[in-house]
Write a structure and sequence with these properties.
The complex is a heterotetramer, with 2 copies of chain A and 2 copies of chain C. Chain A has helices at 5-23, 25-30, 45-52, 69-73, 78-85, 119-133, 152-162, 182-185, 210-225, 256-265, 268-278, 283-305, and strands at 60-64, 109-113, 139-144, 167-173, 176-177, 180-181, 202-206, 231-236. By secondary structure, chain A is of the alpha/beta class. Chain A has one domain (5-298): Rossmann fold, CATH 3.40.50. Chain A has a 6-stranded parallel sheet, with helices on both faces. In chain A, strand 3 (139-144), helix 7 (152-162) and strand 4 (167-173) form a beta-alpha-beta unit. In chain A, helix 1 crosses helix 3 (45-52), helix 3 (45-52) runs parallel beside helix 9 and helix 6 (119-133) packs parallel to helix 7 (152-162). The mean pLDDT of chain A is 97. Chain C is of the alpha/beta class. Chain C has 2 domains: 2-178, Thiamin diphosphate (ThDP)-binding fold, Pyr/PP domains (Rossmann fold, 3-Layer(aba) Sandwich); 192-319, 3-Layer(aba) Sandwich (Rossmann fold), CATH 3.40.50. Helix content of chain C is 37%, strand content 22%. Chain C has 12 helices and 14 strands. Chain C has a 7-stranded mixed sheet with strand order 3-2-4-5-7-6-12, with helices on both faces. In chain C, strand 10, helix 8 and strand 11 (226-230) form a beta-alpha-beta unit. Chain C is globular. Chain C starts with a strand and ends with a helix. Classes of the chains: A alpha/beta, C alpha/beta. At the C-D interface, helix 4, helix 6 and helix 10 of C face helix 4, helix 6 and helix 10 of D. Bound molecules: thiamine diphosphate (2 copies) and magnesium ion (2 copies). One thiamine diphosphate sits between chains A (64-66, 114-116, 144-147, 174, 176-178, 243) and D (29, 53, 55, 81, 84).
Chain lengths: 328, 328, 320, 320
Amino acid sequence: MSLQVDQRREAYRRMLAIRSFEQALPKRIAAGEIPGSVHSSVGQEATLVGACMALRDDDYITGTHRSHGHPIAKGARLAPLMAELMGRATGVCKGRGGSMHLADRSVGIIGESAIVGAGIPLATGAGLSALVRGTGQVSVAFFGDGAANQGVLYECLNMAAIWKLPVIFLCENNLYAATTPASTTHAQPDIAKRAAGFDIPGVIVDGQDLDAVFEATCVAVKRARRGEGPSLIEAKTYRFDEHAIGIFMPSHYRTADEVEHYRRERDPLALYRMRLLEAGHGEPELAGIEHSVAQAVDDALAFAKGSPHPAPDSIFDFLYSNPIGQQA
Amino acid sequence: MSLQVDQRREAYRRMLAIRSFEQALPKRIAAGEIPGSVHSSVGQEATLVGACMALRDDDYITGTHRSHGHPIAKGARLAPLMAELMGRATGVCKGRGGSMHLADRSVGIIGESAIVGAGIPLATGAGLSALVRGTGQVSVAFFGDGAANQGVLYECLNMAAIWKLPVIFLCENNLYAATTPASTTHAQPDIAKRAAGFDIPGVIVDGQDLDAVFEATCVAVKRARRGEGPSLIEAKTYRFDEHAIGIFMPSHYRTADEVEHYRRERDPLALYRMRLLEAGHGEPELAGIEHSVAQAVDDALAFAKGSPHPAPDSIFDFLYSNPIGQQA
Amino acid sequence: MAELTYLGAILEAEKEEMARDPRVILIGEDIALYSASGALGKLDPKRTWNAPISELGFSGMAVGAAMTGLRPIVDLTIASFVYLACDQIINQAAKIRFMTGGQASVPVVFRMSMWHNGANAAQHSDRPYPMFMNVPGLKVIAPATPADMKGMLKSAIRDDDPVLVFEDNDLWGKKEAVATDPDHLVPIGKAAVRRAGTDVTIVSIAGCLPHADAAVGQLAKEEVSAELIDVRSLVPLDRATILESVARTGRLVVVDYAHRTAGAAAEIAAIVAEEGFATLRAPIQRVTTPDVQIPFSPKLERPLYPNKDRIVAAARRILH
Amino acid sequence: MAELTYLGAILEAEKEEMARDPRVILIGEDIALYSASGALGKLDPKRTWNAPISELGFSGMAVGAAMTGLRPIVDLTIASFVYLACDQIINQAAKIRFMTGGQASVPVVFRMSMWHNGANAAQHSDRPYPMFMNVPGLKVIAPATPADMKGMLKSAIRDDDPVLVFEDNDLWGKKEAVATDPDHLVPIGKAAVRRAGTDVTIVSIAGCLPHADAAVGQLAKEEVSAELIDVRSLVPLDRATILESVARTGRLVVVDYAHRTAGAAAEIAAIVAEEGFATLRAPIQRVTTPDVQIPFSPKLERPLYPNKDRIVAAARRILH
Ligand SMILES: Cc1ncc(C[n+]2csc(CCOP(=O)(O)OP(=O)(O)O)c2C)c(N)n1
Ligand SMILES: Cc1ncc(C[n+]2csc(CCOP(=O)(O)OP(=O)(O)O)c2C)c(N)n1
Ligand SMILES: [Mg+2]
Ligand SMILES: [Mg+2]
């Protein structure tokens, strides 16, 4: 499987949208427009978009605290995401969720969980649900290398395997969990190797290579839709920014050289741009995409800033399906 | 490694003690002397004793709800165990623990947990403790095939591996978890294969063969004491009795033929007795052991029945290291 | 109407709701057992999932399935195992609707039974509903009769929010006539006044009902008219019924099998001390299980729980 | 004495106890960070265990280590992650001493911080101490000043029972003079009377202290003499100090950041409604966070918590 011409454009657009969206944030945080801190997916765009390009619009995904990249990769509109980051009533989660929880249900996201690992069973359950309802949908659980040490992953690998659920376990192995190198917390470096114990295919792909991630995901999706069960894909990737932005974060745990190397040699956007040029997409075409993405981010910022804050007396909204008479 | 002459006698004595202890219980339950229900280890004696014969007296173990076999295999006195089953003040847990919790600290047992899988981290932590204190002790976590599906096992395999903890993960795979066949809840039949993902040796042994279990455990213990880290041993064994005795338990989930086959062909006691005879232990010697074990069980029953119940006003004893002023 | 036990009511509720709504599925350990026994009738294998021992995993899966069109019932069997699933219940099920600004519903039911006087010791004898009462977003019920169990469990299955159902295994054998109309529901959030009275209000939680009822009978012999309220639902809690009763009687005894500190009885006492103080004529009495783990020895265990005598004694203390 | 922040007090307590007792070890995620920063001085690598993200596993390991000669401090970082470890804390740490008839001690400390007003949303903003108060066998503390934090954390580390330490990140920057004597302890189980008063008793829990203190100041301007009690320890709870105070003032306001239902404030209200009723002259007031999940939007979040104005208003309601 490889991407068609217009899919390639869309993939580039989504990767760029993630990058541009993320890069617009630090200034807004500094300006006090975005409260709290954010976790950026810069450096990991090819993994997110490569996987999502292999999905149908109605397929499900769950993400993580690093929650901006997944919805954009799945095709979400930027404005409600940005409004959410600014805590506005027009935000995708009505200002209740914020940076760690940009779950956009309209594109199939059923959770961006800030509890590390906790999105995995949600995605597995969505797979079970698709199977029971016979819809042919698949479900992808995105999770980090750190999350791979949560026991719940193994419980879910096992259940997905015995019940042949249409689930793809997609590990964004960016080599670090906050300040902790995976090399110090993983008995062996390849998370994909942990799949064999549950009789699940476990494959490793270059997470900086959009096509590689796309192809591996296509194989897994096909398998899942055929009723043959789950797969685990480990994408080796890298986070270019600090673990979080907007809160003090030490950086001693990795070398400046290492970061520099990835930024220079392994930038998924630069790599894909080169590939597109080689494939005959001309500079003007790419510049067009770049321009329209920049515009979309600007529009999103303007929409967000122009949106109202949620009303304090709406606080109990969405807690229950019907108000149960809570007291303020 | 193989057992010395007097170790062989001791191994036979302990296996027989488990068997005889367990077999004395149904009558006592029917007579109302033992409250609640019990989980018998009959059929699994070689796994328990084979593993424990490879341990030092001061090595640690944790067990399960099927909690009578572990302390006896580790060398515990029978009387306080039986008194505990009868809820007496002289019981090993002062009548507080009962059948699912026969943890005898005097032989190194730091927990018989009735929460399936929960003993695993306790044993892993005891291994960490031994490492920190530099005592050369090892720690064995006994757990069932059912428990092998609890995520905490994988968290502990990983931590034991990265920190090279002196821990042995010993799975008593008796093919069923209560009424559920492992074949329906395990993605592939060998739990030992799940170890590779954590770079830990995973070996399968015949759990009905005391020598096989002993030898595999010796290898793991040596590795652990040398500072080379954990091992996972899967002993394929079988439970001869129902999941629990003293409470209604359906038996539809396995065939009478299968049970009969194991009882007749794969009885660890019969197999070991034969092996002892072949090795030159004479009938009189074995009969002597058999007689003394029968006597020990009778003594334990008499001790238990003759012991007082705990006083109701002692209820707050042992809750905290010092009373904190609870109210009745 | 048909005679049903409390346990039979659970099965009947599940069977009816599964027949009514193809989105209802069942997941839990060893449940092949009761579906195999025919208790639920003939079922599509895709509707009952006999799970590995992976409470956190399958509880979370039920939440994910609930968000995507199913209405799962999770059978956690014994309440003491719920701690393994706490993260998915508290951080996910309870929070997702709110945190996503209403983008998702989580119509999931978690059932669990609480064991008493069976010599099961500390790891199989908990009554952990108080901790979930402190978690906004969850509903928590503890029906005490077969009719309520059937009607409220059915309401729970039809509810669009996560509902925790606490069952008292003391009551399993209890029998009564129960409505057979498959659309007969008992609403979540309404207490039941089991006996009307004027001198003292006795609020009973979950399986305490038979003891509280016996206590009311005993008090009647002593010419004391006790009003007996069975709360049935802990969240939402029917504050109005409790406050209205105390406004008439001026006296309150709360009876609960759970541990004392920060329990359901504490909440009810606090509500009345706050909103019903003007009408309160005597100290509130909590009759609960003391703050100690449940021992194996029946001689130690049995005296711990609320019973008729302790309830009567508490009422007497504030009547005279 | 030395000036220390609340956060500094935590590090100082750990550093002193680790120096004093070789059995004390530290385990948690990203802790290499603060040991690397030198905050704990030079440490044996066998004393700090930088853990994988495996909360259930390493919490249970700490319990196992505690039973076998160590005194682990588990840093769970943010309190909202404790649900993953609930099974080991509730079913093991709390029960093992009792269930084994005293054969084992479990000297383990679980530390966790509670976040407020940082726009962290529902999955990073819980204050789950109420649920653990309902579990016999645990001790639960929530110190509100640097001096108490240092002295009580040290007591917790030396305690032979499992202690849960709840830290309020609101207070991290708060500074005061703290005893430097490494053997200066603050006992667990004693409340502190922060201000003596005669008209109303204000009981403050955890990080509410600065707000309660400000409220007392405001009330003083209105000629109301409020007594301010900082409970510090939730289990054991210093009932005597609270009851004695209410016996003098006849009025009680309980202030707590945790959710309202079945919370710590409910327990304190219930105790007073039960044992202090005779001296109570007005309805008890709970000033708590309402039963709603914590939203991301600061505009929604900030008004939820108890503050000076809400405390003063509650006091006024029962004074006039
Ligand atoms: C259960 C839980 N434990 C700890 C944390 C704190 N925490 C937030 S992100 C993070 C690191 C996660 O690492 P990884 O899974 O590799 O994802 P990445 O941040 O690298 O994308 C940690 C420890 C948390 N949010 N949830
Ligand atoms: C966490 C938890 N879940 C469920 C149970 C109920 N239960 C008790 S024993 C058991 C089966 C355990 O199977 P396995 O681990 O294979 O041990 P075995 O009984 O075969 O020795 C189950 C499900 C429990 N005690 N704890
Ligand atoms: Mg990572
Ligand atoms: Mg088994």
